[in-house]
Amino acid sequence: MDERAALALLADELEYAGDDAAVVDDLVVTTDMLHETTDFPAGTTRYTAGWRAVGASLSDVAAMGAEAVVAVAAYAAPEFDGEDLLAFVRGARDVCDLVGADYVGGDLDGHDEFTVTTTAIGRLENDPVPRSGATRGDLLCVTGTLGRSAAALEYFALAQDGGGGGDEGKDEGKDENNNERANELFQFEPRIEAGRALAPHATAMMDSSDGLARSLHQLGEASGCGFEVDASHVPIAESLRDVTETADEALERATTFGEDFELVVTIPEGALEAVRKATPVPISVLGSVVPHEDGITMDGEPLPDRGFTHG
Amino acid sequence: MDERAALALLADELEYAGDDAAVVDDLVVTTDMLHETTDFPAGTTRYTAGWRAVGASLSDVAAMGAEAVVAVAAYAAPEFDGEDLLAFVRGARDVCDLVGADYVGGDLDGHDEFTVTTTAIGRLENDPVPRSGATRGDLLCVTGTLGRSAAALEYFALAQDGGGGGDEGKDEGKDENNNERANELFQFEPRIEAGRALAPHATAMMDSSDGLARSLHQLGEASGCGFEVDASHVPIAESLRDVTETADEALERATTFGEDFELVVTIPEGALEAVRKATPVPISVLGSVVPHEDGITMDGEPLPDRGFTHG
């Protein structure tokens, strides 16, 4: 049984399954486990790992339209290196500070693989924004840009491969720069503020952690709708353009790679101006909500359900 | 660096470190990672694992004197067996139901070892009960009995060893009974209701998950006090007496084994009657709070800081 089949099985048992975070009273709660081999490429610093792991959970809180209150992490590693541990905690705390949440530590644990579970808790002022409310005619929008994480992976790979040939000292410096750039791209701002600004208008929302294409399939399934996307409106990150050779390649990676933690959201057409005024990051209009039978298309072609499958 | 040294290092970084759960506004939050090899003996059913993992986090909420609101779990296993998964979820949900919390699922994840991280969130009506408020002359009390988990381990071991010699069929039946008994003992009631009843009176409180002896050392360090314990007042579980040969052995296991998730609490002497009336489980008075320089003693002998070190 794969993860999606298992989730489907549990949907019958757990009434809260199937959104970015669970809602209980005015609280939203979300938890995620990450592993070194699947989630932290070689070269990821512990500071970046702390930032990213906690940031991913905060992004789920953002996708519900909630305020971020607190995050915890359970940190497991083969040994507790003081510097590693402090770097992780500082990364976790810095991303929390950025969105006004408290990072309060958690559990330490011995384990053969570096493994982190983060949990974030948010508080709702309005109703939570579900995945299921997208309505025909709504605008399909996304915050920020897509492709930063895909670009980061390229820089991690470059840093690991090394220069090859030429002056060794120079190549080492280059590797270090590439690794630094990768870590920088891997740190992202969870869209808490944007989520709260979007919440009063949004009919459906989720984060783009599985990639835009997969997110649209998930929103489409939850809302019983299709989407038409204009490829020229997909906001491709500059950093991704820098590491891809063609515009098609960049578009492909921007739509399917995922791990960008932007918000994918549907809003009534009339709300766009208000949303843009209230939201601190750029909002791109990718297209619109269409009937379910029209499917999910980009420039008239089916956009398949491909994307990042979280390990 | 071991876990305790690492925790000490982090105490400077995290103002919330060092209690059973962190407090943010009126919320308490706690997270724990558990692994098959260190936390779930062979024979532990997934139902029991779900119960126990979530129960351990709920116990931390109880130790703060808070109401239990919601729990989540991240569940990682080499493969997703539908029956295993449902059993886990049912165990998790049943222990939540028992204390009035919502179990809302969480994350599924592939991993080489069965690993679970649970997070529980509680809400405070009063101030949280810290570990640091024990005052000279206070009574030292514990809820329920100690030794159920130690007894469970004996039954697990018996079931695994098999009968040895004699009729095989009969021994298999015996193994099954021992395993069932072990699982039953491994399921415990988190002391949420007791914690809330104790909270208005308690000067210091924590759960006994590291064993009574270690808990007293931790409370003593946090409160700057010592304790004198009367061995004859330690409430030893019947199930532990059944599997130990001498009273001394039973006492030793009851004070050092841990994993029982009872509440260790100090209260002013005058509050005992009110506490006993309000608390739904028996409260044993083990002894009293003494000056720090008198140390931690049982029947006049030093009670060393030995106990369960969580992996």
Question: Could you characterize what this model shows?
Answer:
Chain A has 11 helices and 12 strands. With 311 residues, chain A is of the alpha+beta class. The first copy, chain A, folds into 2 domains: 121 residues, 60s Ribosomal Protein L30, Chain: A (2-Layer Sandwich); 129 residues, PurM-like C-terminal domain (Phosphoribosyl-aminoimidazole Synthetase, Chain A, domain 2, Alpha-Beta Complex), CATH 3.90.650. In chain A, the strands form 2 sheets. Chain A has a 7-stranded mixed sheet, sandwiched between helices. In chain A, a hairpin with a 2-residue loop joins β1 and β2. Chain A starts with a helix and ends in a 9-residue tail after the last strand. Chains A, B: Catalyzes the ATP-dependent phosphorylation of thiamine-monophosphate (TMP) to form thiamine-pyrophosphate (TPP), the active form of vitamin B1. Chains A, B: This is Thiamine-monophosphate kinase. Chains A, B: InterPro entries: PurM-like_C_dom (IPR010918), PurM-like_C_sf (IPR036676), PurM-like_N (IPR016188), PurM-like_N_sf (IPR036921), ThiL-like (IPR006283).
How many helix segments of chain A? 11
Q: Find the count of extended strands of chain A (DSSP E, 2+ residues).
A: 12
What is the CATH architecture descriptor of the largest domain in chain A?
Alpha-Beta Complex
The backbone outline of chain A, from C-alpha atoms, is: globular
CATH topology description of the largest domain in chain A: Phosphoribosyl-aminoimidazole Synthetase, Chain A, domain 2
For the sheet with most strands of chain A, the description reads: 7 strands, mixed
Beta-strand fraction estimate of chain A:
15-25%
Strand order of the largest sheet of chain A: 7-9-6-10-8-11-12
Query: Biggest interface, and residues per chain?
Result: A-B, 56 and 56 residues
Q: Find the structural class of chain A using helix and strand composition.
A: alpha+beta
CATH homology group of the largest domain in chain A: PurM-like C-terminal domain
Oligomer: homodimer
Helix content of chain A: 25-40%
CATH class of the largest domain in chain A: Alpha Beta
